[in-house]
Design a protein that fits this description.
326 residues; Phosphoribosyl-aminoimidazole Synthetase, Chain A, domain 2; six-stranded mixed sheet; 10 helices; 24% strand
């Protein structure tokens, strides 16, 4: 592949531009908050205080252009699993157990088979998470969506029992970072991935993958609810859009950063394939993808489980980069 290496921004997704716009509107959002809002924009889940000491945790998200791969492969059930697990993981970083979920499905013209497959995936993931699919909205919008296209968003609410909410201020330099393996790309970076594999049949089998490309790209987003319920963690980062560089700092207090050992975990083969075909720089890879770590937990050195995969440590933040991977 000749020419300059690919980037997420060149593929149409400019995360830095979004962050600049978000900073502009944060005061408007904050003006709607009362004392009950404990955490608003910034963390993976918003937190709302309840009488008696408990908290509601809420999050909303989408699946992104992974949907375009599902459409090309005529395989949609995994997309339903993706949206639930993505939202479940977001509120799990606040110590919440999911209570209920709602979906928003929008399309140009409703295809009953596609819609049924998506809802099947949503209900499978909701049952596994112990979460009720409370309702949702299905919208037909010809002229907005091309025939055959659709979009999917999810909205989740969970409960943090009294006394179980984590306080980022308890995180200290010297705490260790535990990496929970991803199942692959999960649900982010697909605008770039689709550019990398443009024109490649989804049926193609790469030797390093050992299965068709379409199956690899559509591998569902893992849920980490069980792991987060069994480990004594102090902070948790769900590694989604923005990659490790963009998401790990979101669970760390000001003045602290992270140092990760690149050889401390095994990257799934799909990431090296994407890197090689797109001639993508390392900084771009780690600022876009999860790179094999779907969730990173901050744990006290004395609380690290024997079987845990330690990938780094919390350090004092003295440089311009809050996350260093070497």
């Amino acid at each position: 592949m000749a020419g300059e290496g690919l980037s997420y921004a060149a593929a149409g997704v400019d995360i830095e531009a979004y962050e600049r716009v978000l900073e502009r509107v944060k005061p408007l959002i904050a003006a709607t908050h009362g004392e009950e809002v404990v955490r608003g924009v910034g963390p993976f889940a918003g937190l709302y205080a309840l009488p008696g000491g408990g908290h509601l945790a809420a999050s909303a998200d989408g699946v992104g252009t992974k949907i375009k791969v599902a459409i090309a492969a005529s395989s949609h059930q995994g997309i339903g699993v993706d949206i639930v697990n993505h939202c479940v993981n977001d509120i799990a970083t606040a110590g919440a157990r999911p209570v209920f979920f709602l979906d928003y499905f929008a399309t140009g013209k409703l295809d009953p088979q596609v819609f049924t497959q998506v809802i099947e995936g949503i209900t499978i993931a909701c049952r596994e998470a112990g979460c009720a699919l409370l309702g949702g909205e299905t919208a037909e919008m010809p002229g907005v969506y091309a025939l055959g296209d659709y979009d999917l968003a999810g909205f989740i609410v969970g409960m943090v029992p009294p006394g179980l909410m984590r306080d980022p201020k308890e995180i200290r330099a010297g705490d260790l970072l535990i990496g929970l393996p991803s199942s692959g790309l999960h649900t982010n970076g697909f605008s770039l991935v689709r550019k990398v594999f443009e024109g490649v049949p989804l049926s193609r089998v790469y030797s390093e993958l050992g299965r068709p490309l379409g199956e690899e790209l559509l591998e569902p987003h893992r849920s980490y609810l069980q792991e987060l319920g069994s480990i004594a963690w102090k902070g948790a980062a769900h590694i989604t859009g923005g990659g490790i560089y963009g998401n790990l700092p979101r669970c760390l207090p000001e003045g602290l950063g992270a140092r990760l050992g690149r050889r401390s975990w095994v990257e799934p083969s799909i990431f090296e394939l994407v890197r090689r075909r797109g001639r993508i720089a390392d900084d771009e890879m780690f600022g876009t993808f999860n790179m094999g770590l779907g969730m990173i937990l901050v744990v006290d050195r004395d609380e690290v489980p024997r079987s845990a995969q330690v990938v780094g440590e919390v350090v004092a933040h003295k440089t311009s980069e809050r996350v260093v991977i070497s």
